[in-house]
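ok trying again, last paste got cut off:
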Amino acid sequence: MVLAVDVGNSTTTVGLFNGEGKLLFRATLETSRNKTRDQCAIDLLGVFGLYGADVKAVDGTILSSVVPPLTAVFTDALTRLTGKTPMVVWPGIKTGLNIKAEIHNQLGSDIVASAVAAIAAYPSPIVMVDLGTATSASLIVGSVYEGCVIMPGLTLALEAMWDRADALPPISLETTAPVELLGRTTEEAMRSGALYGHAAMLDGVIDRMEAAAGSPVTVVATGGSAPRILRYCKRPVHYDADLVMRGLYLLHQKNSRKPRRA
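nice, full thing came through this time. structure:
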């Protein structure tokens, strides 16, 4: 079995794959920069207990982290928990991507993993959208990662607005009912502006990336804010919650294969 861990700015995602590459579970933990190696190992062990999985059955691990102080912490935690030193996604790992030289060493490991999974599952050219703490949109043509656009994420933008505008209160986006375009209260107007505004921003960026690609694009989105926003987009978008996890599994397989004997 392969254990994949993606440490993001707000949440940490944990996934376990069986020998056939099937995702057995995907769990989400809060990212805390103050936790020790042992605390992280306890959290991971708790996930295995929650899903009734056996940590002793893990024979390979892979780690993606966009929080540098936690990379070493999770590396140690995974080693302690499984007895296996994790494969870490960073420059030098085999990806199969032709990444533009200017951004090669700056590209987030989660974006790399998502791109690998997107290429394997969707027709090119692809606009890959990650809706997390930040919102990123990447253009991929064939195996070439052309570049990306990075914007403030949905929650981050809202927090900045009510932090800097004294008359605007904190609001919640936790609602299952459709949000009307025109709000009748300050809270309704803020909620509408956040959701429709973010959706319109994505539609516009995707249109421009499609023009840059010179042909119709396949749009695939992942990330915690995706379900809230995609329903308000005019463009058809494939929502793929497991994109990063599948990408990490593919990277592990690509980098752990033993060379064939002549």
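cool. The longest strand covers residues 144-152. The chain has two domains: 2-88, 98-247.
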